[in-house]
Amino acid sequence: QSVLTQPPSASGTPGQRVTISCSGRSSNIGSQYVFWYQQLPGTAPTLLVDYDNQRPSGVPDRFSASKSGTSASLAISGLRSEDEADYYCSVWDDSLRGWVFGEGTKLAVL
Amino acid sequence: EVQLVESGGGLVQPGGSLRLSCAASGFTFSSYDFHWVRQPRGKGLEWVSGISTVGDTYYSASVKGRFTLSRENAKNSLYLQMNNLRAGDTAVYYCTTGLAGWDNWGQGIQVTVSS
What we know:
The complex is a heterodimer.
Chain A: E1 9-12, E2 18-23, E3 34-39, E4 46-49, E5 63-68, E6 71-76, E7 85-93, E8 98-101, E9 105-109
Parallel strand pairs in A: 1-9
Antiparallel strand pairs in A: 2-6, 3-4, 3-7, 5-6, 7-8, 7-9
Chain B: E1 3-7, E2 10-12, E3 18-25, E4 34-39, E5 46-51, E6 57-59, E7 67-72, E8 77-82, E9 91-97, E10 104-105, E11 109-113
Parallel strand pairs in B: 2-11
Antiparallel strand pairs in B: 1-3, 3-8, 4-5, 4-9, 5-6, 7-8, 9-10, 9-11
């Protein structure tokens, strides 16, 4: 069982808004910054969100993220076919003294 | 242009060793922490190990005591020595770095542990 819990899948139609949750603990999400990564099929991951809710340069503002307590979430609005990918949350865990990833959420654009 | 290029992967028998390298270019290598992240085929990402700018190292529980991470700033290179390899270590291994989150990744290199 992963330290960070994400739903295995999510889906939406073009133009819709979808959210992906990431549930953790006080030793990780509850006290450390959350990062989100997007992994398109057959490619290396790319950074989507840093420091809980900051978009790196070049990331569309359709992507937003938030955190509350020991949970975080990623929202994608105006869904597009190119958003079909796997999405991972990641955070430093104070108890484990290492980084952890969520299990990943596969997003389908129907 | 920032580039991370992994090398050294391949097929190895259980109990064997491999050394992965990550060659960096396009930025000031010594100013960055580095990490290795692996991904078994069809599965999720797993953080393996990290090294700070001053050489402090961190390992996941699954590799601690078997893997050793080091860096050579003069050669802009990162090394992951992997000993006593197991079938469960089979994965694509990515080298990654960044100042605020990991925004630079290598293309990944396959490590297969099998008899």
